[in-house]
Design brief:
Elements (H helix, E strand, L loop, with lengths): L23 H8 L5 H15 L4 H18 L2 H17 L3 H18 L2 H17 L3 H18 L2 H18 L2 H18 L6 H13 L3 H18 L2 H17 L3 H18 L2 H17 L3 H18 L2 H18 L2 H18 L2 H17 L3 H18 L2 H17 L3 H18 L2 H46 L4 H79 L8 H30 L3 H8 L5 H11 L4 H8 L3 H14 L8 H6 L2
Helix pairs in contact: 1-2, 2-3, 2-4, 3-4, 4-5, 4-6, 5-6, 6-7, 6-8, 7-8, 8-9, 8-10, 9-10, 10-11, 10-12, 11-12, 11-22, 12-13, 12-14, 13-14, 14-15, 14-16, 15-16, 16-17, 16-18, 17-18, 18-19, 18-20, 19-20, 20-21, 23-24, 27-28
């Protein structure tokens, strides 16, 4: 039985900061004091930011106030900030298309009002939208733009948030090493800024990486930190995420009651927020429990609710997961044809968004379907392909499942030695994932979490009493000693505090300067690398243009020679034929060799990636893909390939068919992202 898991990450926008729900009262009280109109707008936007993850209706109310007053006083920064918070409200509720529109408006407004920070915010928001919609290369580009501006502005808080976003991007792409590296960079910057609350999304991201790697004790450790902190600050969006992901850990450990408890808590919070993406995620998680209980009717019902919401949001990753989940339930019911139908839909999306881990998952499931149909060779091919991807991602969970399937397939084919070896690997990966030490550590962590929670509550109450008592003593002491040196004592304390402040400020300044120097050094290295790539691209363009012009000239000479065939002596004709063969040979091979030499200097992994994704592509197919990758049109491809534009058109049609791309998908744009 296959259970689908869909982890959601908490993305960093700058909205989750040291300000929490505890600050609402003080901010609202501030609105009752004499403030300038600009100060009032800033407070409105701050209140809206706090409400974004807990009460979207209240957030929209304060956004409207900030926008109206900003327009009245022509306060550009206030207008930009209000539009940015509005974009995050939309994304929090799963309206990704509308959120993209809002963030593009942020960029436009920031340009109009010359608000540089607004440009960083708009690019940050668009980067997160593109992660949710599966456009990872575009997301990386937007984050880079945002970080370039933040470095220019010395905005270290913004940089730490974007490092967290890059960690999330690495997670979704299956690059766990890169994800952890960026998450740790984010935490280092947050530590230097003294922002404990800002580290919460990063702990969630680290937990998700460990979960995907099957290291459940460390995943749970990070999730419980997130739950504790989210409950303290009243961030309901974050609570929903952490509850759901914690439930997934318990589900992996077969503690179904505990898993259902956390899933239901997550769903309740998400319904309260109107969070469509979160609700789809929770429905998927609850369905997994019913699947494990062999209650396929309820499982399919919850999966369909998840599918409906993902279709409404236009979330490709969510759709792929829902299709895969439905396929799993139908397969367990014995409806293999229905299962394969949904698996093919999932596979198509996974390839389109380049979701490597998702590809491994669906390939193993297709292998399971073929095994049920007794198509053992087809099953073997699918499982082996899935295992290659799982091994590249170091995914113990899918390596375990894949080897379990290989053992079953080999046994059916009477390949008992191969079956035995696969079973041994299956047991090894199983032991790595679910050993007794992990299970005990999870139980200990849960107990520590509950104990710490109670202890914190008790400590808080005791501290309140102590503070009250200390206050009374301090007041009496102050009255008694006011006449005999109270002023001198206060002055001494102030001097000590001021000195400590100065020392701390100097240390922070030195730390910031070191961080700036490191960032500038890294930026210089990055610019040098980019300049090298740009130079190689210019060389490639030059070679392509020269090859095109050379081929055109050779074709013209060939045509002129053809015109001479009937006008010369018969004894010269063999020489003419030899010249034509030489021209044809030069047209085909030399141009391609020169092009290939420059192309692989600029795009060294292009052909390897294509062959890995589409093993059936021919050398001719690969050649056409390379020409498209450098921006050549049909006429230019026909010229450099010595063929017709109609033949090129047919080649492009066959290529799209082999790659299983929809008619509306541009083959050129698709290849540009590889």
């Amino acid at each position: 039985m296959k259970i689908q898991f869909f982890l959601i990450l908490l993305f960093s926008s700058g909205l989750l900061s040291a300000q929490t729900l505890d600050d609402l009262d003080s901010l609202k009280a501030l609105l009752e004091t004499p403030l300038t109109d600009q100060e009032k707008v800033d407070v409105y936007n701050d209140v809206a930011k706090i409400y974004t993850n807990s009460d979207s209706a209240m957030a929209e109310d304060y956004i409207a106030k900030a926008k109206a007053m900003s327009q009245t006083i022509d306060y550009g920064k206030g207008i930009v900030d209000a539009k940015n918070v509005g974009g995050w409200v939309l994304m929090t509720r799963g309206y990704y298309t509308q959120a993209k529109t809002a963030f593009r408006e942020v960029l436009s407004l920031a340009e109009d009002f010359k608000v540089r920070q607004g440009l960083a915010l708009g690019n940050n928001g668009l980067g997160n939208c593109h992660i949710f919609t599966g456009r990872y290369d575009s997301a990386a580009l937007y984050f880079k733009r945002s970080m370039d501006i933040q470095r220019e502005l010395r905005d270290f808080n913004g940089l730490s948030l974007n490092y967290n976003n890059l960690g999330n991007l690495g997670f979704y792409k299956g690059n766990y090493k890169e994800a952890l590296k960026n998450f740790r960079r984010s935490i280092q910057l947050k530590d230097s800024l003294g922002d404990e609350v800002g580290k919460i999304p990063t702990y969630l991201g680290i937990g998700n990486v460990y979960f995907r790697q099957g290291i459940y004790s460390q995943a749970l450790e990070n999730y419980l930190i997130v739950i504790t902190e989210m409950e303290k600050i009243g961030d309901k969006k974050g609570q929903g995420l952490a509850y759901n992901n914690t439930g997934l850990v318990y589900l992996r450990q077969n503690d179904l009651n505990k898993a259902m408890e956390y899933f239901q808590r997550s769903l309740a919070v998400r319904k309260e927020l109107g969070d469509q993406g979160g609700m789809a995620n929770s429905y998927n998680s609850i369905a997994s429990i019913y699947n494990q209980l062999n209650d396929h009717e309820n499982a399919i019902e919850y999966y369909r609710q998840s599918l409906t919401l993902n279709e409404k949001m236009g979330s490709p990753r969510g759709l792929a997961t829902a299709y895969n989940s439905l396929a799993s339930s139908y397969l367990d019911e014995g409806d293999i044809e229905k299962a394969l139908e949904y698996q093919e839909k999932s596979l198509k999306i996974r390839r389109k968004i380049k979701d490597q881990l998702g590809l491994a998952s669906v390939m193993l499931e297709i292998g399971r379907s073929y095994l049920a149909q007794e198509k053992y060779q087809a099953a073997y091919n699918q499982v082996k392909e899935g295992l290659v991807i799982a091994e590249s991602l170091n995914s113990f969970n899918y390596l375990r499942k894949g080897n379990q399937l290989l053992a079953a397939i080999a046994s059916k084919r009477s390949l008992y030695q191969e079956a035995f070896e696969a079973h041994i690997r299956y047991k090894q990966y199983s032991d790595s994932i679910s050993n007794d030490q992990n299970t005990k550590k999870i139980a200990r962590l849960e107990a520590e979490f509950e104990f710490q929670k109670e202890r914190d509550i008790t400590a808080f109450e005791n501290r309140q009493k102590e503070l009250s008592y200390e206050k009374e003593l301090a007041e009496k002491s102050l009255i008694n000693k006011a006449a005999i040196g109270g002023g001198a004592l206060v002055l001494l304390i102030l001097l000590i505090v001021f000195r400590a402040y100065q020392v701390n400020k100097q240390k922070n300044r030195e730390l910031m300067e070191k961080n700036i120097q490191i960032s500038e050094l890294r930026e210089t290295e990055k610019q040098m690398a980019e300049e090298t790539i740009a130079l190689k691209e210019r060389e490639l363009t030059t070679v392509t243009m020269l090859s095109h012009e050379r081929n055109t000239l050779l074709q013209q000479i060939g045509s002129q020679i053809n015109g001479l065939s009937g006008k010369v002596d018969q004894e010269v004709i063999p020489d003419i034929r030899e010249i034509k063969r030489t021209i044809k040979s030069n047209l085909n091979e030399e141009s391609w060799n020169n092009f290939m030499y420059q192309f692989e200097k600029v795009h060294p992994e292009f052909f390897n990636k294509l062959k890995e994704l589409y093993p059936t592509l021919t050398p001719h197919d690969l050649r056409i893909c390379a020409y498209l990758r450098v921006g050549m049109d049909r006429k230019e491809i026909a010229s450099i390939s010595t063929t017709t534009t109609e033949a090129v058109k047919k080649s492009l049609y066959r290529l799209k068919k082999k790659m299983v791309l929809d008619a509306e998908v541009s083959l050129r744009e698709y290849l540009m992202e590889i």
